[in-house]
Design brief:
Layout: H1 18-41, H2 47-52, H3 56-68, H4 70-78, H5 81-89, H6 98-110, H7 115-139, H8 146-176, E1 191-195, H9 196-200, E2 209-215, H10 230-246, E3 257-258, E4 271-273, H11 274-283, H12 287-293, E5 297-301, H13 303-317, H14 325-343, H15 357-371, H16 383-390, H17 398-422, H18 433-442, H19 453-475, H20 479-484, H21 486-491, H22 498-505, H23 511-520, H24 525-536, H25 539-542, H26 546-564, H27 569-582, H28 588-595, H29 597-609, H30 611-619, H31 630-633, H32 639-651, H33 658-681, H34 687-717, E6 735-740, H35 741-744, E7 754-760, H36 776-792, E8 803-804, E9 817-819, H37 820-829, H38 833-840, E10 843-847, H39 849-863, H40 869-887, H41 891-895, E11 898-900, H42 908-922, H43 935-944, H44 950-973, E12 978-980, H45 985-999
Parallel strand pairs: 2-3, 2-4, 7-8, 7-9
Antiparallel strand pairs: 1-2, 1-5, 6-7, 6-10, 11-12
């Protein structure tokens, strides 16, 4: 049936494209006439009738697609019956599922008797599917966008790979046999890794497919006419697979195949065993190969084996530390691309040119390379998935992600239209006027419409400018800003240009010039110059590998500049250089500081203020990561947020990898304490808050350590028995960690150890219910031992806390873990007065809530009993004098005007003893005193109950805060506990006066 005149509506088609459509319509008529004739001879339905019956809307879509795409036009002219088939199957309106692709291809390949028929079937299958994909991409029915188009092309490629591989394996099995099973008895197949956009599941319309071939284990084939070594078998199979997709026949090609990303590229073997690949990437893998492996994904063959291979290679791709060296590699790769773009005049290339697809991808993949080892959420092949995770991880602002996402999609949409013109892999904007009209029409869909080429280019320019800005913000060289500020530096004589610092570091200045430069920047010139020269000439620096030496050379001018900007340049430099020396062989940290000048500034300011912080950073360089986010560096998290952050950090680590869990715990603890110290130095937190935050950190860590230890013991030995014979919950430890001392009093300082007591309430004669059952007392003792081990074990990140268990019933001679009943009995009948003093500051810091209530009741009962005042007073005073004699300052120090703010008379311990005495002496009549374990709230309660005059309470609170504040400062500056006595005369007098009235009234 002949098509009617005006069959293709021209309403929405630019006039410049009307002649093209007229020519195509004529060719389609001729093709349909021939097809109708063949159908008549074969008694089949003529395709012309189906075309003639198309709705007006479908004809409008057809006109639009034909106007843009030669791929669609030539396919329909050659196979006019496909339009009816695709329309009937719904492929013009929605993407088929992968299973449908596989089923259709399997039906086609079942009829293929030889390789030529395999090739023909693959190419026709791909061409028919691409017709539907291009149609949907240009028309955009509901649910179709760039990402869906890219996913459809990727699924098509995977289906073709799997279908061709399966056919080839079966076809050559009689001659070549099948591979031998692995040592575990598993069948072996070729593993096909998709790289690049195929691995990401985001292929463009006319993309090459980048592949790597691998196989699990060596061996020989079995069951064929002859045996082949696995290497030869899989190489032959890989060659056949490439030909099946890549060879150009009368039907064209299915997919162009690129194998250059394999180890050693074109010079390497086509296929590698898992051991060979693992060895190569460990010993010879280059930075660009890390970048390439980001998108690796098994796409055909043995998918599970492919996943196992990628899991083995993961440490090569994703480093455990923040790897800012990756930015250097990306910068170098981009520089090579830029040179190629300039050499070939490719500025209009929307992939490789400025602000193009590659720069947008670099922004996202930079974060994957730098942070993927730490933030495992970024270990995804899909660029879209990685982009969506950057804002929740606070790596990019949501506003930036909201710009990048549509801008990248716009560029990929434009890439698809360019490739739909002629099924060519191109990203270059056309010069011909009619092609520009076709591209503008292809990009006009939905609510977005471009009247002409200039309108499209205007939008493109805006998109590329935004992407270039984001690229520069992430990838640009940090020295660029420094170099551009040279004019400002010359205007300010006190500012030293970066090139002068570089000359100083490189030893290019005479000694007099170097000292003058340091003097000008307020350094102590002779000392600082000796230190700088000593580092440069040290054996450690001279023995560095090239890449490390280059990173150090790039960092040192920036570091000297940052030191000069600090409050005490020489002090900051002297304290920072041990850190530099500590990371000379872990040069990713040199790259981190070099790539983040703001972090370098924070480092120098913190080092200038605190040698303790400087030592922590040198001991644990992983803490440098914390300098990257000032918002959290100077804002410690509250307990809820701490618990959430720790939970998220540990959730990224397999539950059975205790070593990694321990390391993560230690890094978390050190990082959070650094946040507290940084905010303390910056004056952003009050003294009370500093102690609160340090205590919160310990509580959160203890809660997690208890859970880890409980899980370990119950997995080994089963659940212990309760006193009533029932079993405890495997996931809820019925156990208490009781904090004493500073932990119990919510007054932890920097470097405080933890005074702990362990309590359980299990059946004393019960046992666990696991295969390796043990008695309850043994279970709980091992639980306590496990907790101590987890807290004190030394890993590369150090220990969590030092633990002191001497306050448990009977001290070091007592059981490590007490039953609640035994604890209560001891406190009621055997404990000394000083142990009841210690109990004043005791509180549960981790464990079962119901058990905690019972512990609190016992504590209240013991502390609240009536006591004989004089006997109590005598024992408290005797214990205090004993402590002063052993721990206080010597007579010579006191004569020299020194005062131990903790142990000397009128100091911190006197205030603590006064509070403890008050609880023991008065809580029988004032039970409100039993509610708190910290001294500040005890003093407030004594005031509100009228037991302590307001002036005395205020004076003691002020003295206690002053002492603790000084103690924190002394810890951060490493100056010890002795201070000038004259600075605390009034506070000591206030404390001593109350001590005299309460505890020595007759003296």
């Amino acid at each position: 049936m002949a098509l009617s005149e005006g069959f293709l509506p021209l309403t929405d088609i630019p006039a410049a494209l009307h002649p093209r459509l007229g020519q195509l319509e004529q060719r389609l008529r001729e093709s349909l006439d021939e097809a109708d004739g063949r159908a008549g001879r074969n008694a089949e339905e003529p395709p012309g009738e189906v075309w003639a019956a198309l709705s007006q809307a479908r004809r409008g879509e057809l006109a639009r697609v034909l106007a843009v795409s030669n791929l669609v036009a030539e396919s329909l002219i050659r196979f006019p019956g496909w339009l009816a088939y695709l329309d009937a199957e719904g492929e013009l309106d929605r993407a088929p599922e992968r299973e449908q692709y596989d089923r259709l291809l399997a039906d086609a390949l079942e009829r293929a008797a030889d390789e030529s028929q395999l090739h023909a079937a693959l190419r026709r299958f791909r061409r028919a599917r691409m017709l539907g994909i291009v149609w949907r991409d240009l028309i955009r029915p509901q649910g179709v966008d760039m990402w869906q188009t890219a996913a459809s092309v990727s699924q098509l490629a995977e289906s073709c790979l799997e279908g061709a591989l399966g056919w080839l394996e079966a076809h050559f099995a009689p001659r070549w046999g099948r591979p031998a099973a692995t040592a575990d008895g598993e069948a072996q197949r070729l593993v096909v890794l998709g790289m690049g956009k195929l691995g990401a599941g985001e292929l463009n319309l006319s993309s090459d497919i980048d592949l790597i071939f691998a196989y699990p284990e060596k061996g020989t084939t079995q069951g064929g006419k002859r045996e082949y070594d696995h290497q030869e078998y899989f190489t032959r199979l890989g060659q056949k697979l490439i030909g099946a997709l890549d060879a150009v026949t009368a039907d064209g090609f299915a997919f162009r195949v690129d194998m250059r990303l394999r180890p050693l590229g074109d010079g390497g073997p086509l296929v590698g065993s898992f051991n060979m690949l693992a060895s190569y990437y460990q010993d010879q893998g280059r930075e660009w190969e890390r970048y390439a492996m980001l998108k690796a994904r098994p796409v055909a063959g043995d998918i599970e084996a492919g996943r196992a291979l990628l899991a083995e290679l993961r440490p090569f791709v994703y480093r455990k530390y923040l790897d800012f060296g990756a930015i250097e590699s990306l910068r170098e790769m981009k520089s090579l691309i830029n040179r190629e773009v300039r050499r070939k005049g490719m500025a209009g290339n929307i992939k490789l040119g400025p602000g193009g697809i590659r720069e947008a991808e670099f922004v996202i993949q930079a974060f994957q390379l730098i942070r993927g080892g730490r933030d495992t959420e970024l270990q995804v092949a899909s660029l879209k998935a990685a982009l969506e995770r950057l804002a929740p991880l606070e790596l990019l602002p949501q506003a930036v992600v909201d710009e990048l996402t549509p801008d990248y999609a716009f560029l990929r949409d434009l890439e698809h239209v360019l490739q739909a013109l002629d099924d060519r892999q191109t990203q270059t904007l056309p010069d011909a006027a009619d092609e520009r009209e076709r591209v503008a029409l292809g990009m006009s869909r939905g609510e977005v419409w471009f009247d002409d080429w200039p309108a499209l280019i205007a939008r493109l320019d805006e998109v590329r400018e935004r992407i270039r800005g984001h690229f520069d913000a992430v990838i640009a060289d940090p020295e660029d800003d420094s170099e551009t500020s040279a004019a400002d530096a010359q205007a300010d004589e006190a500012t030293v240009p970066l090139d002068e610092w570089r000359a100083l570091w490189c030893g290019e200045l005479a000694e007099s010039e170097a000292q003058a430069l340091l003097d000008r920047a307020s350094f102590e010139a002779p000392v600082s110059l000796r230190r700088i020269n000593g580092l440069r000439e040290s054996r450690a620096v001279q023995g560095m590998q090239r890449i490390g030496f280059e990173r150090l050379d790039a960092l040192m001018p920036l570091l000297l500049d940052a030191a000069a900007d600090s409050a005490a340049p020489s002090t900051a430099l002297e304290r920072a250089l041990p850190l530099v020396e500590a990371v000379l062989r872990r040069t990713a940290y040199l790259a981190l500081l070099r790539e983040n000048p703001e972090a370098l500034g924070h480092l120098m300011r913190l080092c200038a203020a605190s040698p303790w912080i400087a030592e922590q950073l040198a001991r644990h360089p992983v803490l440098l990561d914390e300098l990257l986010t000032p918002a959290t560096l100077y804002s410690p998290a509250d307990k809820t947020r701490l618990a959430d952050e720790l939970r998220q950090a540990l959730a990224r680590i397999p539950e059975d990898d205790e070593e990694a869990q321990l390391e993560a715990l230690r890094v978390f603890k050190h990082a959070q304490v650094l946040h507290v110290a940084a905010s303390d130095i910056a004056g952003a937190r009050t003294l009370m808050k500093v102690s609160d935050y340090l205590t919160f950190i310990a509580e959160v860590v203890l809660d997690r350590v208890l859970a880890m230890a409980w899980r370990n013991l119950t997995n080994k030995h089963g659940r212990p028995q309760r006193r009533d014979g029932s079993r405890v919950d495997r996931h809820r430890p019925e156990f208490l960690i009781v904090g004493y001392g500073k932990l119990g009093g919510i007054e932890l300082g920097y470097g405080s150890d933890l005074d702990l007591v362990f309590v359980h309430d299990g059946a004393l004669k019960g046992s666990t219910d696991g295969k390796r059952a043990i008695d309850n007392p043994v279970f709980f003792t091992r639980l306590g031992q496990r907790i101590i081990h987890l807290l004190t074990a030394v890993t590369p990140a150090g220990a969590l806390y030092e633990v002191d268990m001497r306050l448990r019933p009977s001290g070091n001679s007592g059981l490590l873990v007490s039953s609640l009943e035994a604890f209560a009995d001891y406190q009621r009948n055997q404990a000394w007065t000083w142990e009841h003093q210690a109990l004043v500051r005791a509180r549960v810091v981790a464990g079962d809530a119901a058990l905690e209530e019972r512990f609190a009741a016992i504590r209240g009962e013991v502390l609240g009993r009536a006591r004989e005042s004089q006997a109590l007073r005598d024992e408290v005073v005797a214990m205090r004098h004993k402590m002063r004699d052993h721990l206080g300052s010597r007579a010579s120090e006191r004569e020299a005007g020194r005062f131990d703010i903790k142990q000397d008379a009128g100091g911190m311990i006197d205030i603590e003893f006064l509070c403890q005495y008050a609880v023991l002496a008065m809580s029988h009549d004032e039970p409100a005193l039993l509610a708190f374990s910290d001294n500040m709230r005890l003093l407030e309660t004594l005031e509100t109950t009228g037991r302590l005059p307001a002036d005395d309470a205020r004076a003691l609170r002020e003295a206690y805060l002053a002492y603790r504040n000084t103690s924190h400062r002394q810890a951060l500056t490493k100056q010890g506990g002795r201070v000038a006595a004259e600075d605390f005369v009034d506070h000591r007098r206030a404390v001593s006066d109350l001590w005299q009235r309460w505890l020595a009234p007759g003296d």
